[in-house]
Specification:
Pfam families: TPR_12
Protein name: Tetratricopeptide repeat protein
Largest sheet: none
Keywords: TPR repeat
Structural class: mainly alpha
Number of helices: 16
C-alpha cells in the first residue's frame, strides 16, 4: 500500500471515529449504518506507526458503540485492539480508555480484579491531572467493582468520597448524583438493609426524573424488583418488572432486557409454576444467544441444566450444560 492510500485510510478512520462517536448517543440506527460502511471502506491492515492515534480513536468509538448496545463481548474486542496501539500509557486519552475497558471487562469477566486494575490506573492519571469529573466517575466505578467483590465497606468509602468531591463542584452533575444514590442503595441491598436500599433507589429515580434522559431509572427499578421478589410481594414485582421491561425494550438495552427476562423466569419458579419457568428460561437463553451475550448464556444455561439435573432429566441437563460451555449444535 502506497503512502497516499495509507494517508486516505487514516483520514477515513478519523472521520468515521468522529461520526460514530457523535451518533452513538443520538441515533442508533444511523450509527449502525456508519459502522457497516466503515467496515467496508477501512482497511485495518493499513495501520501505520504515524497514525496509531487515529485508529485508537476509531476502535474506542467502536467499543463505546457496542457498549451502548450492551454487546459487551464486541466492545471488549475493539477496546483490546485499541490497547495494543497505545504508546503513552499516562496520557489523559489513555486514562479515558482504561476507564472504558474497565467497565466492559467488569461486564464479561467473573473475576473483577482485572477491571479494578484498569479503573485504578485511570483514577491515578485523572488525579495526576486534577480532572474532577474523571475522578468522580472512576471512584463510582471502583465502588461498583468492590461491591461485586463483596468488599462492601470499601465500596461505601469510595461512594462517600465521590459524593464529597461532587459537592465541591460549583454545579452538581445530577446524572452522577443519581448514580451515587443508586450504588449506595445497591450496597445496602447487599447488606440486606432493604428499607435503606429502597430509600436510596427512590432518591436516584427522583433525581433522574429531573433530567432529559430517563432510561437510567431502569437500574433502580430492577433493584427494587429484586427486593420485592425476595419478599414475594407479587403486586410490586409485576409493577416494577413491567416498567423495567418497557424501558429496556424502548431503549434497546439488550443486556438488561435479557436479564429481566431471566428474572421473569425466576418469578414463575418462585410462584411454583415450573412449566412456565422452563419455557421462559429457554426463551431467555435463545435471546441471549441471539444478542451474543456470552456471560448471560453461560449463567442462564447452567442454571437450567442444574434444574433439569435435580429432577433427573439428564438428557436435557446435558444439553444445557453443553450450551453453558459454549457448545452449540
Amino acid at each position: 500500500m502506497n503512502s497516499i492510500e495509507v494517508h486516505t485510510q487514516h483520514l477515513l478512520a478519523k472521520i468515521f471515529g468522529v461520526l460514530i462517536g457523535h451518533y452513538t448517543n443520538h441515533n442508533v440506527e444511523e450509527t449502525d449504518k456508519l459502522y457497516d460502511v466503515s467496515k467496508r471502506v477501512i482497511n485495518e491492515d493499513s495501520i501505520h506507526d504515524h497514525y496509531h492515534k487515529d485508529f485508537i480513536y476509531l476502535y474506542r468509538k467502536y467499543g463505546n458503540y457496542f457498549f451502548t448496545k450492551q454487546l459487551y463481548e464486541k466492545a471488549n474486542y475493539y477496546l483490546t485492539k485499541a490497547e495494543r496501539l497505545i504508546e503513552d500509557e499516562f496520557s489523559m486519552e489513555s486514562a479515558k480508555f482504561y476507564y472504558n475497558i474497565s467497565i466492559v471487562k467488569q461486564r464479561i469477566l467473573e473475576d473483577k480484579s482485572l477491571s479494578l486494575i484498569y479503573s485504578k490506573k485511570a483514577l491515578h492519571i485523572f488525579e495526576m491531572n486534577n480532572f474532577t469529573m474523571g475522578i468522580i466517575k472512576t471512584m463510582i466505578t471502583i465502588a461498583v467493582q468492590y461491591h461485586l467483590m463483596d468488599r462492601l465497606e470499601e465500596s461505601l468509602k469510595y461512594l462517600n468520597t465521590a459524593q464529597e468531591r461532587l459537592e465541591e463542584k460549583e454545579r452538581i452533575d445530577f446524572q452522577l448524583q443519581s448514580s451515587i444514590e443508586y450504588n449506595i442503595g445497591r450496597v445496602y441491598q447487599k447488606m440486606e438493609d432493604d428499607e435503606l436500599a429502597i430509600f436510596h433507589f427512590e432518591k436516584a429515580i427522583d433525581i433522574i426524573d429531573s433530567l432529559e434522559v430517563k432510561k437510567d431509572k431502569i437500574y433502580s427499578y430492577n433493584a427494587m424488583l429484586e427486593i420485592y421478589l425476595k419478599k414475594k410481594n407479587w403486586e410490586k414485582v409485576d409493577h416494577y418488572l413491567s416498567i423495567a421491561l418497557e424501558i429496556a425494550n424502548i431503549n434497546n438495552l439488550s443486556y438488561l432486557y435479557v436479564e429481566l427476562n431471566g428474572i421473569k423466569a425466576q418469578i414463575y419458579k418462585s410462584r411454583g409454576d415450573e412449566l412456565y419457568y422452563e419455557k421462559q428460561m429457554k426463551k431467555t437463553i435463545d435471546l441471549a444467544l441471539q444478542e451474543s451475550q456470552t456471560s448471560l448464556v453461560t449463567s442462564l444455561a447452567e442454571e437450567l441444566a442444574n434444574y433439569y439435573y435435580e429432577y433427573r432429566f439428564y438428557k436435557k441437563a446435558s444439553d444445557y450444560y453443553r450450551i453453558s460451555n459454549g457448545i452449540i449444535e
